[in-house]
Design a protein that fits this description.
Blueprint (H helix, E strand, L loop, with lengths): L7 E5 L4 H11 L4 E6 L4 H10 L4 E5 L5 H14 L6 E4 L14 H29 L2 E6 L12 H21 L4 E8 L8 H4 L2 H9 L13 H8 L10 E4 L7
Parallel strand pairs: 1-2, 1-4, 2-3, 4-5, 5-6, 6-7
Length: 250
C-alpha cells in the first residue's frame, strides 16, 4: 500500500465510528485526508489526528442540504492542494422505526444524505478524476443493501440504492481509469448501532446469526478501504464487498 503516500482523499462522516477508522487507516499510509462532517466534534477530531502526525483537514457540512455540497466540495479540493485521488462516501443516517410510523420527511432526509449526497459527490469527484485518468471511489453500502432489516425501511432502501449506483457508475467510468466500488459493512460497535447494542434481546439475536460471534470493531473495516484505495485494486470495478463477520454467508 506504499503507493498511497501523498495521495489526496475526501472522507465523509469521519468524525466518529467507521468513518474515523477509515480516515485514520488512510492517514497511516500517508494519505492527506479532508473530512466532511456535520459533527460539532470535528475540529477536535482533526486536531487529535494531527497530533498523531497525520495530514488532515476538516470541513463542516450538512449533507442533507444539497445546496451546501458544491461549495464544501470546492473548499475540500482547495485544502487538498487542488488534487483528489480517493473519495470515500461514508456518511449516513438511520431512522429506526416501523414504516407505518415513519414520516415522509424523515424518509426523505435519509435519502438525501445516504443517496443524493453520495451521487453529488461521486459526480463532482468523477469530473476531477477523469481529467487525471484515474481515481478511486469507495461507497459505503450495508448488508441491508440486500436484506430488508427490521424497522429499517428508509435505511435499507437507501443502501440498496447506493449498491446499484455503484454498479452503474462503474459501468460508465471504468474505462476512464476510475474504480467505483462499495463496501457492505455488517454490524459494528458504533454510535449508529447504539439502539441495538442497548437492546440485549435483539443484540443476542443478531450475534447468533453472525458466524464470527460478535459485532465488528471500526478499525476492522480500514483494511479493505486501504486496498480499494490502492493500485492493488485497479482491476476491481462495480463490486459490493461484505465485511460482516460472515453474516451474509449464513
Amino acid at each position: 500500500m506504499k503507493g498511497l503516500n501523498n495521495k489526496k482523499a475526501i472522507v465523509t462522516g469521519a468524525a466518529q465510528g467507521l468513518g474515523l477508522a477509515i480516515a485514520e487507516g488512510l492517514c497511516e499510509y500517508g494519505v492527506k485526508v479532508c473530512i466532511l462532517d456535520i459533527s460539532p466534534n470535528l475540529n477536535q477530531v482533526v486536531e487529535d489526528l494531527r497530533q498523531k502526525g497525520y495530514q488532515v483537514e476538516g470541513l463542516h457540512v450538512d449533507l442533507s442540504q444539497q445546496n451546501q455540497i458544491l461549495d464544501v466540495f470546492n473548499q475540500a479540493i482547495e485544502r487538498l492542494d487542488e488534487e483528489l485521488d480517493i473519495l470515500v462516501n461514508n456518511a449516513g443516517i438511520h431512522k429506526p422505526m416501523p414504516a407505518a410510523d415513519l414520516l415522509v420527511e424523515d424518509f426523505q432526509r435519509v435519502m438525501d444524505v445516504n443517496v443524493t449526497a453520495v451521487f453529488q459527490l461521486c459526480k463532482l469527484s468523477g469530473q476531477i478524476m477523469k481529467k487525471k485518468g484515474k481515481g478511486k471511489i469507495i461507497n459505503i453500502a450495508s448488508v441491508l443493501a440486500t436484506q430488508g432489516g427490521f424497522n429499517a425501511s428508509a435505511y435499507s432502501t437507501s443502501k440498496g440504492a447506493v449498491a446499484q449506483m455503484t454498479k452503474s457508475l462503474s459501468n460508465e467510468w471504468a474505462k476512464e481509469g476510475i474504480n467505483v466500488n462499495a463496501i457492505a459493512p455488517g454490524y459494528y460497535n458504533t454510535e449508529l448501532n447504539k439502539f441495538i447494542l442497548e437492546d440485549e434481546e435483539r443484540l443476542a439475536s443478531l450475534v447468533s446469526r453472525i458466524p464470527a460471534g460478535r459485532f465488528g470493531n471500526p478499525e476492522e473495516l480500514a483494511g479493505i478501504v486501504q486496498f480499494l484505495a490502492s493500485s492493488k485494486s485497479d482491476y476491481i470495478n462495480g463490486v459490493i464487498i461484505p465485511v460482516d463477520g460472515g453474516f451474509l454467508g449464513r
